[in-house]
Amino acid sequence: MGLGGCTAMSKLSDVTGSVGPRAEAAPTDPARAVETYGERYRANPKDADAALGYGQALRANGQRAQAAAVLEQATIANPGNRALLAQYGRALADNGNFQQAFDVLSKAHSPDNPDWRLLSVQGTALDQMGRHEEARSYYASALRIAPGDPGVLSNVGLSYMLSKDLPKAEEALRQAYASPRASSRVRQNLGLVVGLQGRFAEAETIVKADLPPDQAAANVAYLKDMLSRNDAPRGAPKRTPVASLGQPD
After folding, report:
1. Which of 160, 226, 153 is nearest to 188 (CA)?
2. What pLDDT, on the 0 to 100 scale, is given for residue 25?
3. What is the pTM of this model?
4. Which of 192, 178, 191, 124 lies closest to 156 in space, CA to CA?
5. Is 241 within 8 Å of 4 (Cβ atoms)?
6. Is the pLDDT of residue 169 over 80?
7. Which of 44, 31, 96, 100 lies closest to 70, judged by CA?
8. Nearest 10 degrees: CA dihedral of 210, 212, 217, 220?
9. pLDDT tens figures, 17-63
10. b/e burial code for range 208-228 (CB count within 10 A of at least 16 → b)
């Protein structure tokens, strides 16, 4: 199983929380949000709140390179702003710059006041660089602060999956799945790991359980696609799901 760019599975809460322009709800449509926050940003590119809102909107709209460029300039204009650093690190990870993302995120919090969300995000960056043992030490630190968080546990499971330890991956994902706060992506991750162990009927039951027929069918189709990619001939491109680095759940 190789590291791929698919981030449709496990996702954490946004690493910066509810940051963005103050006193007004964000537009729910990503394109509209880009337009709204873009106007504010262009009016004052050095305004940290405007840059945060614009960067988040660009990321949500899939404009990853532009988001990274906006947030890079914002961190230069606002040195030491940890909310901006956190978003910039996330944007770098969106673009596959995992080592740089890890380094930037390290500046967004400190050992004496760690943010468990950022610890988990750093873990996912390490996993994408193949540094799985080191990644799991970051997840362990995050779980000491936020015990039982299903997003972090799901990342632990994906980390074990990427290092081909499927029984441990399943154990972590079952813990995540048992949480009432678990997202649908945790269900998909668990189904995938069970399917990778050859138990497709059980995997199908997991991804379909308690869902409307259309969503259940979509989950099964996705599961089949992921498993077929895993069985592709050596050298063929694969799309192994990896934990997201901080999009809202």
Report:
1. 226
2. 59
3. 0.79
4. 124
5. yes
6. yes
7. 44
8. -20
9. 333 344 455 677 888 999 999 999 999 999 999 999 999 999 999 99
10. beeeeeeeeeebbebbeebbe
